[in-house]
């Protein structure tokens, strides 16, 4: 599956909805046992949640958007398929979450590509299920430090503490991803799926149990004037950067 | 304590029962403060649960067998003694669980010796308390990947991510195990035991609370025709390998 | 903030009470966003809880002392400020807890400086919230082994498994601590504080929920004749060492 939403594969409501529908179709397709997620946009895997969806919109819109983000994660982290992230570009915030939700992460070794949950730098807070997914991958201490600093890590650094499993040169990425997929698909589906579910169920169940509360939290937080202001400033900065 | 049940120290109902009785005796013997577990069979620490106990038997037998496996783990993981695994051979599945349940794991550095929870490769699923013990030792991410792939790791790899604590040449194993035992026995028993219990209690309590349910799960799962078939195929394969 | 309670910065009831008052003042001072903890006593960061407070005193005194120790940890681990430990000397037991409760730990690379939760060596048991703080920092396995052995680690060893984040030569310590503080203070306070609270809340809440029970446990344990005896012996040993 190739993300193609130029310029930066930002996770707009439309993009997320389409991703959820695609995942559901693949999940229900008995011929499909695995999916490789990668980007068709150069230098960017995904830039994360689309800030325009969180800025200057109605409370209803924020709620709808957040429910879609939750849905995406529930589908991806809880997928019965083998999921491999072939990270061929930078992957901040929600982009990093997508990678974290897969079974295996391969990243192109390019000093310009960065990855991490940098929400704190924007003045916002990663929700508890981003945090849980991160802790499950890199452990409590690395997550605590990285989340508080909103760190964006180079590919090498991310590999060193296990945020990505493997680094490859760009030209080897697809080949490597296919090899990893073949390795995981060699296992009997049923046993692999039950094992995956056993590992991830506690964290998935936690969001399911607190889903409405989490939406309410997000809506209340994001619609604060101080947060809206800091998001607007961030968007201005991005626009200036581009031009 | 030396496992001696040729050819491969497989954990039959008899073997497990005897192991539990021995552990209980040692536990109640105030002179005995620690135990080193090792194998008297060349190249094998323990090959894990005896598949013949799980294949073509009655529901009652499966239930009895599983209760014994639980008992073994409860006694070993919760032991008041210092427990050192001197892993002098391969140690898949239940053999790996025994090593994981000790306080310290020393493994012979031999490229032929492998260790891991490879249940998924047989089409079965390690129960939650195998998983909990594994996560407590190597962390969530390593456990997730290793359990899903049913990986059997070389001694070097196992050492790299903490599945074993130390590698030694075969001829140094007993000496090293004795030195480690002496180091742990230098601590006051009472404080060491309370500390151990504090670290392991949550995971031990979880099985105690769900013991009957876990037996029922095992019996239902293992008696499925599809699972029985895959176990029979696995046994055929082992027989062919031998001959 | 410089600890200055010669000869070894031991955490007496007076010292802890003063520390709590200072932390509260800083916490309520809106100008103060971070604090660096270090020692004004050569070669010792803090020697941990003052054993004289736990030896030959009344049950009421033990209870008062323990409540103060809890208070210190609740304030420090739950602080809204950025907390950096600049560990410029040895730091056993309660001294190690103070370092573990900060956001970041820098230690002077001196082969004579040691750090760890060595309670087991004194025949006592680190309480569950020392353990939780330790597990959150170094993971379950390292904590299990280190706590059972009551290990005091060299700075290098402590750095290797993440008990400290960074090693520096003594003359660079203050400069490095200031640089780390500046890095953490560059983040928006609100997002950083909420993130910190999200990471630490479960463990903080656990003590709050069991605070009286934990005091009772401590008082019962410490007032046992066998424990009193072993503490007296330990103090004798320390006195002999000094003279």
TrEMBL record, chains A, B, C:
Pfam families: ECH_1. GO terms for molecular function: delta(3)-delta(2)-enoyl-CoA isomerase activity. Its EC number is 5.3.3.8. It catalyses: (3Z)-decenoyl-CoA = (2E)-decenoyl-CoA; (2E)-tetradecenoyl-CoA = (3Z)-tetradecenoyl-CoA; a (3E)-enoyl-CoA = a 4-saturated (2E)-enoyl-CoA; (3Z)-hexenoyl-CoA = (2E)-hexenoyl-CoA. One of its GO terms (cellular component) is mitochondrial matrix. Pathway: Lipid metabolism; fatty acid beta-oxidation. The keyword S-adenosyl-L-methionine does not apply. It is found in: Mitochondrion matrix. Transmembrane segments: none annotated. GO terms for biological process: fatty acid beta-oxidation. It is an enzyme of class 5 (isomerase). InterPro entries: ClpP/crotonase-like_dom_sf, Enoyl-CoA_hyd/isom_CS, Enoyl-CoA_hydra/iso. PROSITE patterns: ENOYL_COA_HYDRATASE (PS00166). Keywords: Acetylation, Fatty acid metabolism, Isomerase, Lipid metabolism, Mitochondrion, Transit peptide. Key enzyme of fatty acid beta-oxidation. Able to isomerize both 3-cis (3Z) and 3-trans (3E) double bonds into the 2-trans (2E) form in a range of enoyl-CoA species, with a preference for (3Z)-enoyl-CoAs over (3E)-enoyl-CoAs. The catalytic efficiency of this enzyme is not affected by the fatty acyl chain length. Belongs to the enoyl-CoA hydratase/isomerase family. Homotrimer. This is Enoyl-CoA delta isomerase 1, mitochondrial. It comes from Strix occidentalis caurina (northern spotted owl). The lineage of its organism: Eukaryota, Metazoa, Chordata, Craniata, Vertebrata.
